[in-house]
Amino acid sequence: MSQPLGAFSNGWAIDTAAPVDLSNSDKDYHPVFKAFLAGSFSGTFSTILFQPLDLVKTRLQNPSQHVVAATVNGRIQPGMITIFVNIIRQEHIAGLWRGMVPSVARCVPGVGLYFSSLHWLKSKMGKTRQDLSALEAITLGVVARSMSGIALIPITVIKTRYESGVYKYNSLTGALKAIYKAEGFRGLSCGLGPTLARDAPFSGLYLMFYTQTKQAIPKEYLQSPASASVVHFSCGIIAGIAASLATNPADVLKTKMQLYPDKFPNAFSAAMYVHQTYGVRGYFKGAVPRMLRRTLMAAMAWTVFEEITRSIGLK
Question: What is the pTM of this model?
Answer without folding.
Answer: 0.62
